[in-house]
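Subject: Alpha/beta fold hydrolase

B.,
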Amino acid sequence: MTQGVETRRNRPVEGKGRARRPRRTGLAVATGIAVALLAGTAGTPAGAIDTTGTTDTGRERAPDITAPDSPAEAAGARLAAERAGRVGIEWGPCDPSTRLPDPIECGTVSVPVDYADPSGDSFDLHVSRLTASGPPEERRGALLYNPGGPGGNGMSFPLFPLRLATPVWRELNTAYDMVGWAPRGVGPSAPVSCTDPELFGRGPGIAPRPPSAEFKREMDRRAAEYAAGCPANRGEWAGAHTTPNNARDLYVLRAALGQERLDYLGTSYGTYIGSVYATFFPESVGRMVLDSVVDPDPVAIWYDSNLLQSLAFESRWSDWKEWVARHHDVHGLGETAQDVQRAVDALMDAVDAEPLEGVVGSKEVHEAYLSVAYSDAAWPGAAAALVAFAAGDPEPVLSASRPGTDPAGMARRENSNAVYTTVECSDAPWPRSWERWDADHSLMAREAPFETWENAWLNLPCRHWTGPQVRPVDVQAEPGTLPPILLVQAERDAATPARGASEVARRLPGSVTVLERGAGNHGVIGGNACVDALIRAYLVDGAVPAGDRTCAGRAEPEPWPPATGEGGTDPVEEDGTTPGPERRTPGFDGTPLAGAGALLAEALPPARGALPGGVPGFVPLPG
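Prediction pasted inline below.
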């Protein structure tokens, strides 16, 4: 994307098992900044987003803003569902392009482009399933899954019980057909693209902190260019890619599967689809689990929620630095978080001065290190890579940060980003004024420099959006109208902060929350035995916890020992053996994940900045 020149700070762009310690610093300041932003002291009152007229470039008109659920769309969804229920799904072998092996089956379901016109243009959603393994009398039908995003592809969900070691997936598969789908615009489901995949993500890029005024202008120009390339801004599929339409698609999929009620597992953005579905179709909710819960507050969707998310990323980044410092005896990077930050800064400056292999600069390295905020499993590999780089071995950093060159992988990554942009920009009004963006993010970056500006660049195309937008859905339900929904949340999750679970519990009465205390992993299910037991009991047996539950967080990872040879660092198991390739950190042996590993990663909750195929930086494939 960007070409690194000069030094890393304030320069222009050229070209394209132990207890946790609570964070002690910055909390009061961070809280004050959040309050200031929400109160509008950065320039505009909270919730008062100016979407009128043109942007300050004077070239772009404001988008049309409509209600999220018109009577015509509601009627169209029911008509499409009735039609899908009559037709069903013709299951058969999966196309080789899906890379899904037997016994997984694939099929398609036709849905309208525009639910207000259900007899108009349509397209096929692609679905996959692994049939239930238990006896017929114990089977419940289908469990549908969405991994998040927007832009995540759930087609590989049926692989979970076949390839992942965690027992909960096989236990669920005894009762359920495991069904995944590629949402509208994703993968084979009428894919969206906003730019040439070979140009998207091309390195080396730079991630200056703080960015100069010239850098900001250049990034805003590129955001406008990217937005202009999206189909919704060219009059194609205008207004088609929204969360309300994803929820309607889910309603149609339920009918095509022959189920009166939806049994559903949504992670990350998939929880927002579930919340909207419960609002639109309360009579068709079965057993629903929302893991790592998006805050559905319509005032926060999406500008404020993305902005305030940076505070949570900063806290998780500090968690990792403090962990590295506590293991100074292994890492040798210093005994304080500040020492570790200096080592990271030195790495960033070095790769901008001389990009690794000419393609990895500070932007690519930042994207890899962002993975430590998503998963504790990334912590040892990220630290070991930093240690190796300081010792003169860049290979571990390079392996985790290298942009993909496989055409199919590049297309998947650009497609995922295009869907993310299109859905978030279409889902809600966004500020049109650059002064608003600059003031808000400059204030936030004072306390949360790690991700604030990278978050801004990711979402900045929405400032230039000219396609239709909807007002955010007011997620809610009357008491007694919904069965209990299970909300699963890590207390220190950065991508979906814990406030989201509290807000959904308030808006959807009867919901029960399972909190992983002190933990920060994004996507809790499949790694905590206490949580997994509650999930299994709820989904398989219908056992609802008597009240909100708290599970102890999983133990912090142990650091890897010093590098054992040229070319990187391998983890060592407790018995002293080196784990097989399926357990190693992606890229640390010099090769990207391939085969089943890459497929599984595609169906995991995607991290922003994820490498092609959805593999985020240093995160090893979970088992």
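Residues 303-326 form the longest helix (24 residues).

T.
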